[in-house]
């Protein structure tokens, strides 16, 4: 390493890439003029400027220290009461004082390095990234000797058996791990939901039952199967709800062109799975005038009046339809479970 | 080793004594000698990697704070605290409740959460801009190809770290993100359903995913990240940093400032500044206020259901793919409408990143070490490919935001989707073409400048009424910057048959590489050579700095002029 | 019609009495009394005024007797609530056709709106304008409202009511500036693309919970600047603009040579 007081002379060997391209190219290239001459800064020549910067840097460090003190004050004095405003005030106070404390150090350090530390550039030689030929030779010899000491070449059975043992032993960990993390691996659960004949429809999230008469044309209701309230506080429920949610819409019967599933609607009321057949987002943006149902995640659009067929976006299949009817008390009930798996496609969906 | 270092005298200062103690046991002196005055080139763009590194440090610091209060449990509870009012008495997982608790009850908790989340966004952004710098300047060339691979893996780990952390609060927004992930997993042929069970421990969402993601997020990924960051920095120090081209900078040296004090001080300063920016953002800008989304429930979803920005390209890719591509083969469903956008397109993008350095090495046929960076204009095809790649990425990210574009610019979401479907194919191609043209144009501009000098804006009028502009020649530093590069020519390959007419094996492969090489280097602008400059002057077409004119100024025009001074 | 008016009069009698009391004690305030009362004290005179206004401003599209045309739907039976919502938010009369009628400064004053509402209400029974009590956020429960809002509203209007996109250029507007009365009316009548949430699908109490939740959102965000409440996309944009902007700015300063 040498300080660049005397830039290296413009000699041919500084021209890069000279090794493979002929002397002809080499000859007709400009010489490297060498690094720029070092120019002193204002702070190098003017002691008063240097002093000013020194004071400025010290001041920045002091500001940082004050920021830290302010931060401690904010911590103890600005106690959030839990309200939105209280939490916001505390967060801002702590965040801003913390930032002052950090900026003070950061800006001071950089200013110090830029104005007061020497800005003389240095040049350091690089060496080839590769080891020298001798070193490689020596290492090759070492490995050869090691292999000879071990006698691998003479004992091929050992080589094979050690390979076998090493390849197999991870199974002792992997098999229990992999087979345990998948639960019961019973993927046929994708095919069934808790809907079934006679299960009543209820509003999500209140659980109130729904009468057909409740729905006016243009009404939409987000629906869950009617189960006792206490059952709705379990993981089992959340997992079942993830498959069972339904969107209920009442159309003018004249607008309803067809059902996706024959006879599944009731008097203009249709119930479709709310889980998108694309990748499973809840499809819930119902546009009353066009009867289109839009998924907010990837914009698959289904036409509710026309068997929930896809009219736009990345989904392929219509939403599965839940067959519904009305019981003696006027409540909406399911006639059956869905007749196909709800949600996104998977390999063995049709099997 | 004997009891004392053989050469040094007995140290007297406390620092000296401590150093002596340490060195006698570790030989740390040898290592330190290499590092203390090691020279680092200085340029603002070399600090882009520091953005990623230091945001990662901030992530670790704030992350430790968060783990003190976060409970990764999916047990269901009713929220007891008074605030926020909209959450009182709601049924939620312990994970979500503890997130609320640390935000509203722990002083500074919300600040730390927000710093952590902003840092994650800035971390990924730092990685992207750092990769852009490395790519466009050719810093991935030998001997740094391996470090490029390490860096690309760091980026992918960063994506995974972000996604796993984003899902931890168990809110509706991230829960729907997980559900999309589940949908993508299910689309994998043959093993999709089982992989879904593997991830969720049964059917989605089950009761295992949050603790599992927690382990992934705070143990597995950070451990891998730390290890690879170690390798990344070690290789950076081992290879020494690259430097921009310029006077005195060669592939055999490194010009810059010593690690101690200037480089280290600036680096430390930069850490505090970056931390400060993140603290300021965490303190004043709300991010992912999960109580607005509520605890996860499979039924609700919010408009603007999107992942954090670095996953937006996947979201956009899913949004653009038309649904007709789902097909059924022999009764088995192949969801190409999900597989292509969510698996194949990101696969192609990452593959491009992984293999590019090796492809470029092959088509240049260049086996030398490179430590001086390229000016992006001097490698037009690479620059064009990089811009095309970014264009594809940005179009996908914008497609992932198409609903917000629709509402903010009063457009139809369907029209936007169609526009992006077309742009995804046309945009990158056009970006490549125009970028390459711009690069070639800039190179020609450089040639022009070297040959004819700067325009001075001074107009001189001759006696015969002719006007010319006075040109000032470049000084040797300016000129060196513009002529010191290599314009690779397409590969030359051996003929298909040898002298005796025997067909050569491997000719076809060579031909293919040659064709690719032509794509890269057919159009090129050679640097000005001294003889060309000489010719330009003696030709006098645009003039010269022939000493006989007694002036340093180049003059446009075909004859000598009376100079103004 | 008379019978209907009488019944309404009866139902809202306490409010009218309260307003009368206000009139006596503070005449100025009475002049600014909210429109519900005016609509409910609809007289034949109001209906006549409303009819004239209707024929001047609305009949071109909705037909001379509000029976609807190919351009616009019939207004028979939409009720006073629908008219008050559309006219007081400026959506109607429409200035130009587009994917949907946008909110703009109202073109009719309160009296004219009330008269129009009275006229349309007289054409057939429909939802009435809600009372102040029905839309009082203080009476609602924000936590209940949150649960209802995220199931029924958030998919279109965004989690905190910042609005969102629908198909073909339509959109669900932001709710943060919308008055409580208009929010209630929108749920009740299902304007444009919005589905109807009648009093069976969302009970009046539940509607008030929703209003309470939206009202709470107007306090802003506990974390600081809410950045439009648009979720991760806007957060990412701000991370690039503010975060990367400041940090790269600092890097350029650090890398620049000191003079």
UniProtKB/TrEMBL annotation, chain B:
Residues 246-441 form the Cytochrome b/b6 C-terminal region profile domain. Its EC number is 7.1.1.8. Keywords: Electron transport, Heme, Iron, Membrane, Metal-binding, Transmembrane, Transmembrane helix, Transport. It catalyses: a quinol + 2 Fe(III)-[cytochrome c](out) = a quinone + 2 Fe(II)-[cytochrome c](out) + 2 H(+)(out). Its main location: membrane. Pfam families: Cytochrom_B_N_2. It is found in: Membrane. Its cofactor is heme. It is an enzyme of class 7 (translocase). This is Cytochrome bc1 complex cytochrome b subunit. It comes from Isoptericola luteus.
TrEMBL record, chain C:
The keyword Cell membrane applies. Residues 1-30 form the signal peptide. Coiled coil: none annotated. It comes from the Bacteria. Keywords: Cell membrane, Electron transport, Heme, Iron, Membrane, Metal-binding, Repeat, Respiratory chain, Signal, Translocase, Transmembrane, Transmembrane helix, Transport. It is a multi-pass membrane protein. This is Cytochrome bc1 complex cytochrome c subunit. It comes from Isoptericola luteus.
């Amino acid at each position: 390493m040498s300080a660049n007081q005397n830039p290296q002379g413009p000699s041919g060997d500084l021209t890069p890439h000279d090794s493979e391209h002929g002397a002809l190219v080499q000859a007709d290239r400009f010489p490297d003029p060498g690094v720029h001459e070092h120019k002193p800064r204002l702070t190098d020549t003017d002691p008063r400027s240097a002093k000013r910067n020194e004071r400025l840097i010290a001041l920045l460090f002091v500001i940082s220290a004050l920021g830290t003190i302010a931060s401690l004050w904010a911590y103890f004095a600005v106690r959030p009461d839990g309200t939105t405003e209280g939490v916001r005030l505390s967060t801002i106070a702590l965040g801003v004082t913390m930032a002052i404390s950090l900026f003070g150090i950061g800006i001071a350090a950089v200013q110090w390095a830029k104005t007061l530390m020497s800005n003389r550039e240095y040049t350091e030689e690089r060496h080839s990234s590769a080891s020298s030929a001798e070193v490689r030779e020596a290492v090759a010899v070492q490995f050869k000797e090691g292999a000879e000491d071990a006698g691998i070449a003479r004992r091929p059975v050992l080589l094979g058996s050690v390979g076998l043992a090493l390849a197999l032993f991870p199974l002792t960990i992997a098999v229990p791990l992999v087979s345990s993390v998948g639960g019961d691996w019973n993927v046929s659960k994708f095919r069934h939901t808790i809907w079934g004949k006679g299960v009543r429809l209820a509003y999500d999230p209140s659980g109130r039952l729904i009468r057909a008469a409740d729905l006016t044309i243009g009404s939409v209701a987000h629906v869950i199967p009617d189960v006792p309230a206490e059952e709705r506080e379990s993981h089992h429920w959340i997992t079942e709800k993830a498959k069972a949610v339904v969107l209920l819409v009442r159309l003018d019967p004249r607008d309803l062109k067809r059902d996706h599933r024959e006879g599944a609607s009731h008097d203009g009321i249709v119930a479709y799975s709310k889980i998108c057949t694309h990748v499973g987002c809840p499809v819930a943006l119902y546009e009353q005038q066009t009867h289109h149902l839009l998924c907010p995640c990837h914009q698959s659009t289904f036409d509710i009046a026309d068997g929930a067929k896809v009219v736009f976006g990345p989904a392929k299949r219509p939403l599965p339809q839940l067959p519904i009817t009305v019981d003696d008390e006027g409540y909406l009930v399911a006639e059956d479970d869905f007749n196909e798996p709800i949600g996104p496609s998977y390999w063995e969906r049709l099997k | 080793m004997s009891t004392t270092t053989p050469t040094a005298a007995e140290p007297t200062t406390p620092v000296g004594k401590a150093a002596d103690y340490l060195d006698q046991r570790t030989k740390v002196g040898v290592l330190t000698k290499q590092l203390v005055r090691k020279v680092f080139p200085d340029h603002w763009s070399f600090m882009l990697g520091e953005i990623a590194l230091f945001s990662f440090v901030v992530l670790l610091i704030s992350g430790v704070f968060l783990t003190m209060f976060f409970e990764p449990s999916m047990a269901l509870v009713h929220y007891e605290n008074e605030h926020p009012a909209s959450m009182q008495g709601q049924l939620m997982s312990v994970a979500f409740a503890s997130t609320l608790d640390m935000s509203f009850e722990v002083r500074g908790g919300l600040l730390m959460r927000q710093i952590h989340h902003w840092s994650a966004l800035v971390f990924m952004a730092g990685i992207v801009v750092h990769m852009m710098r490395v790519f466009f300047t050719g810093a991935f060339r030998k001997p740094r190809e391996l470090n490029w691979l390490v860096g690309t893996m760091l980026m992918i780990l960063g994506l995974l770290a972000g996604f796993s952390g984003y899902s931890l609060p168990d809110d509706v927004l991230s829960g729907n993100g997980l559900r999309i992930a589940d949908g993508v997993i299910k689309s994998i042929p043959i093993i999709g359903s089982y992989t879904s069970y593997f991830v969720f421990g049964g059917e989605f969402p089950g009761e295992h995913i949050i603790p599992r993601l927690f382990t992934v997020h705070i143990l597995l990924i950070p451990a891998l990240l730390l290890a690879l960051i170690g390798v990344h920095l070690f290789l950076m120090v081992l290879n020494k940093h690259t430097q921009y081209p310029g006077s005195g900078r060669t592939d055999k040296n490194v010009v810059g400032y010593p690690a101690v004090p200037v480089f280290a001080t600036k680096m430390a300063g930069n850490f505090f500044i970056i931390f400060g920016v993140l603290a300021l953002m965490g303190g004043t800008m709300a991010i992912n206020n999960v109580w607005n989304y509520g605890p996860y429930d499979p039924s609700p979803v919010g408009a603007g259901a999107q992942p954090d920005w670095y996953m937006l390209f996947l979201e956009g890719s899913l949004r653009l793919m038309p649904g007709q591509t789902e097909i059924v083969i022999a009764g088995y469903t192949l969801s190409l409408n999900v597989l292509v956008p969510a698996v194949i397109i990101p696969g192609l993008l990452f593959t491009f990143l992984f293999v590019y350095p090796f492809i470029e090495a092959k088509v240049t046929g260049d086996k030398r070490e490179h430590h001086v960076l390229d000016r992006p204009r001097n490698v037009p095809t690479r620059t064009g490919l990089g811009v095309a790649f970014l264009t594809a990425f940005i179009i996908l990210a914008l497609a992932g935001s198409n609903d917000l574009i629709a509402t903010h610019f009063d457009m139809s979401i369907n029209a936007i989707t169609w526009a992006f479907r077309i742009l995804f194919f046309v945009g990158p191609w056009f970006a490549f073409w125009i970028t390459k043209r711009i690069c070639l144009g800039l190179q020609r501009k450089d040639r022009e400048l070297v040959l004819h000098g700067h325009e001075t804006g001074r107009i001189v009028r001759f006696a015969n009424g002719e006007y010319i502009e006075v040109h000032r020649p470049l000084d040797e530093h300016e000129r060196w910057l513009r002529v010191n590069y290599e314009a690779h020519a397409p590969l030359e390959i051996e003929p298909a048959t040898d002298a005796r007419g025997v067909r050569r094996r491997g000719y076809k492969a060579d031909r293919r590489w040659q064709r690719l090489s032509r794509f890269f280097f057919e159009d090129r602008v050679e640097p000005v050579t001294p003889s060309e400059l000489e010719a330009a002057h003696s030709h006098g077409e645009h003039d010269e700095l022939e000493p006989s004119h007694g002036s340093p100024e180049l003059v446009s025009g075909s004859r000598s002029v009376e100079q103004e001074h | 019609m008379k019978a209907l008016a009488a019944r309404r009069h009866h139902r809202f009698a306490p409010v009218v009495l309260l307003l009368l009391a206000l009139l006596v004690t503070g005449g100025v305030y009475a002049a600014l009394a909210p429109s519900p009362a005016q609509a409910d004290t609809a007289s034949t005179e109001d209906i006549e005024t409303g009819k004239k206004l209707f024929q001047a401003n609305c009949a071109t599209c909705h037909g001379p007797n509000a029976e609807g045309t190919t351009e616009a739907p019939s207004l028979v039976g939409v009720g006073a609530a629908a008219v008050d919502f559309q006219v007081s938010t400026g959506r109607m009369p429409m200035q130009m056709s587009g994917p949907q009628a946008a909110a703009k400064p109202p073109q009719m004053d309160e009296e004219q709106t009330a008269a129009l509402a009275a006229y349309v209400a007289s054409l057939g029974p429909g939802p009435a304008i809600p009372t102040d009590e029905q839309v009082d956020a203080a009476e609602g429960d924000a936590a209940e409202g949150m649960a209802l809002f995220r199931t029924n509203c958030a998919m279109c209007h965004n989690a905190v009511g910042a609005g969102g996109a629908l198909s073909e250029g339509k959109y669900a507007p932001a709710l943060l500036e919308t008055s409580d009365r208009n929010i209630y009316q929108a749920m009740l009548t299902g304007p444009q693309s919005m589905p109807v949430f009648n009093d069976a699908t969302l009970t009046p109490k539940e509607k008030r919970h929703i209003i309470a939740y939206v009202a709470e959102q107007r306090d802003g965000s506990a974390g600081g600047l809410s950045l439009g409440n648009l979720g991760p996309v806007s957060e990412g944009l701000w991370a690039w603009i503010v975060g990367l902007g400041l940090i790269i700015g600092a890097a350029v300063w650090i890398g620049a040579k000191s003079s």
